[in-house]
Amino acid sequence: MNTKNKKGFTYFGLVALVLGSVFLSQGVGGGRYHLSQSLSLFFPSRLSPSEKVILFDIRLPRIILSFLVGGSLSLGGGALQGIFQNPLVDPYVLGISSGAALGAVIAILSGVYLGFFTIPLFAFSMALFSAFLVFYLGKIGKKFPLEVLLLAGIGVGFFFSALVSLGMFLAGEDLHQLFFWTMGGLWNSSWREVKMILPFLIVGAPTLFSFSRELNAFLLGEKVAESLGVEVEKVKKWLLFVVSLLVASSVAVSGVIGFVGLVVPHLVRLLGVRDHRHLLPFSFLLGGGVLLWADTLARTILNPVELPVGIITNLLGAPFFIYLLRKRKKSL
Amino acid sequence: MKEYLQVENLSFSYRERKVLDKLTFNVEKGELVGIVGPNGAGKSTLLYLLAGLLTPEKGKIALGDKDTRFLSRRMWSQKVAMVFQEIPQNLELTSQEVIAMGRFPHLGRWQREREIDEEKAAWAMEITSTTAFFDRLFSELSGGEKQRVMIARALAQEPELLLLDEPTSHLDILHQLEIMDILLELRKGGMAIISVFHDLNLVSQFCDKALLLKEGRTLSFGGVEEVMKVEEVEKLFGVEFLETTHPFSLRPFFMPLQKIKNQSSRGIVHLICGGGSGSPLMRELLEAGFSLSLGVVNQLDSDEELARKLGIPVVQEKPFSPFSPSTMEEAYRLAQKADYIVIAPTYWGRGNIANLDLAERLALEGKAVLVLEEALNPEFDYTEGEAREKLRKIIKEGGKVVKDFSTYFSSLSP
Predict the structure, then answer these.
(1) pTM of the prediction?
(2) B404 pLDDT more than 90
């Protein structure tokens, strides 16, 4: 099989896997709608009104949201690992997670209510704020040296995390809500969240895909990339901006879900895909699929209790990551 | 016709430190220019400026009559490609994928690779002989193969000017020559090539022109034969060189001898030798920091040839002739300036025995005469004992027999 066919086959396999996963996962979970009825997805008129609600207003939006969030995080992670030329970078490296958490803390503690979207809105704004703060702190002259950006991200992240901890300490009975938020979960999913995140993805994903060749050139080092005609600083700025939007919107609707964005691009590399033109779309599809499964597991494993999906991704992701590290020490 | 690359008064500073100072030179298409200079001379900085990776502080770079200030990054990369000194490690891409990256400046954001892109990549692979391992991972290639892939990557850019930063520095001699072959081939095709080399002799053998760079300034620039002279390269590196002619290319060939030290810091030694007996001593004494003079020796004697190449004052006699009184007088005047007279283990015959009279005369005048122990070997005497007799007399007049210099001179100095 030549390389082109192999890539085509992988695309086909991933899309089939995702569709299959959607189909399977919509059939499992609490409520009176079961896998045996799954085919009703295609014949909704056969369903009772309550089954319709379970399927179309609860499960489907949640499945789709988990796919989109997983896809965004993995796509963002893959792009950032490319920019930073560092395999240990995850989508939260610019302090987005702790910024978002701080936003949620502020929203919950201040009691400000701006409608249903209050918490996501605060989380999103603070996430972007922290990303820009990191940009600002990481800028030297007209350039963004990568190691300075990384360290600025760590610094800002720690500072905001401390504020989040302080908020949680002071939160009293709201602690529960905050605690769940920082672990990441998709239990509040509805079509509204899907609508909130979708525009960012529709604009962001193709933009990131269009930078694939630049990201490939980064593999040879920044200087070589520049000599090839890549406007390095401009590309960095654009990519970091788009990734920030994508990740901030994801965090805003789902809380901080760890490890997906870090591990999935590595999984794709493990398949032998290094070319970002394929690495990014593969990461998106696989990341979506992985989070979809993790969330399905999270909502069914201790039925009727739901686990925060972040626990599942960390529980499965961390050992897998260590396995990768041990196995591929050389290239990591 | 005007030159392709024109550099005028180019200056550059890193913060306060001046790295390049008013460089001016031109390069034509089809020319291979070698840049040499000591570490920190600004060689890499110059290449970075020519590649547009740094912005000149002052001065002008023009490519094909176009001032580069108005070139976009992309346009610049269509004209100039650079091969960097560092080779990326752990690059898990096939060599073909790496080489195809060279097409970047010719492709639009949403454009797919066209047929011409594949053709150009194939050409780059062919000329660098990298076609054979197109599907092997870059990280698994040998050093020479990696370097060739990096060159192919640059060639896929279809540059008019190719810049290389020490392309041979990590390679063994065979792979160095492979790289030079590639450059010569490209030069024939009309590409302008500028390369930094750490090896002077690669420049003198293969390049058309040389740019000698020292402390950010042009020491000299021009055709290799005019520029690569022993005085120039000695000034460049602060090292004494021996210049010979390369037997194949007939270009100058330089052998490093030693660091240039302060002259006559430890005194002058006049060496009496011949037939090669002085050659190892010259090196030893020069390295120990002495200045030398020599004589009398016959022309074409290997000691005489070496001394001349080293720039040591020599008193010579015509080939295969006994030493005439006037030559001996000349040698006497030269030797008088010396602090020590050293007699090397030389074969003594009727032709050169006059040298021992010279030594005896100087010993009588109180000059320190050192006789190497080996010189007393009776087998060296082809004068039926006359030479040995003279040597004995010299020793009686105060000449010292020494085993080797290092022990003798270290016993002198406090």
Answers:
(1) 0.78
(2) no
Among chain A residues, the shortest Cα distance to B88 is held by A220
CB contact under 8 A, B107 and A213: yes
Which pLDDT band holds residue B103 (cuts at 50, 70, 90)? Answer: very high
Say yes or no: A253 contacts chain B, CB-CB below 8 A: no
> b/e string for B321-349 if b means 16 or more Cβ within 10 A?
eebeeebbebbbebbeebebbbbbbbbbe
Which value, in Å, is the radius of gyration of the alpha carbons in chain A?
A: 20
Asked if B95 and B47 count as a contact pair (C-beta separation under 8 A), the reply is: no
pLDDT for position A1 = 42
User: What is the C-alpha separation between B84 and B47, in angstroms, rounded?
Assistant: 9
| B103 to chain A, closest Cα gap in Å | 8
* Predicted complex ipTM: 0.83
Residue predicted with more confidence, B155 or A8:
B155
Torsion sign across C-alpha atoms B114, B118, B120, B121 = positive
Q: Does the distance separating the beta carbons of B107 and A210 come in below 8 Å? A: no
Give me the half-sphere count of Cα atoms (radius 13 Å) on the Cβ side of residue B138: 25
Mean predicted lDDT score pLDDT of chain B: 89
Residues 6+ apart with CB under 8 A from B81: A227, B51, B102, B154, B155, B157, B159, B161, B162, B163
Smallest Cα–Cα separation from A228: which of A247, A214, A242, A212? A214
**pLDDT above 50 for B214:** yes
Best probe of the B interface among A81, A228, A234, by most B CBs < 10 A, is A228
Residues in chain B: 414
Q: How far is A127 from chain B (nearest CA, A)?
A: 29
Instruction: Please tell me if residue B159 touches chain A, with a CB cutoff of 8 Å.
Output: no
Q: Which residues fall within 8 angstroms of residue B66, CB to CB, at 6 or more apart?
A: none
Q: What is the pLDDT of residue B366?
A: 87
DSSP-H helix ranges across chain A: 3-25, 49-52, 60-84, 96-110, 118-138, 146-170, 175-183, 191-210, 212-218, 222-227, 232-254, 260-270, 276-300, 309-327
Of A221, A223, A229, nearest to B104 by CB-CB distance is A229
Is B165 within 8 Å of B85 (Cβ atoms)?
Answer: yes
Maximum mean pLDDT: which of A175-179, B113-117, B249-253: B113-117
A270 at B interface, C-beta within 8 A: no
pLDDT band at B150 (very low <50, low <70, confident <90, very high): very high
CB contact under 8 A, A221 and B86: yes
Tell me if residue A120 falls in helix, strand or coil: helix
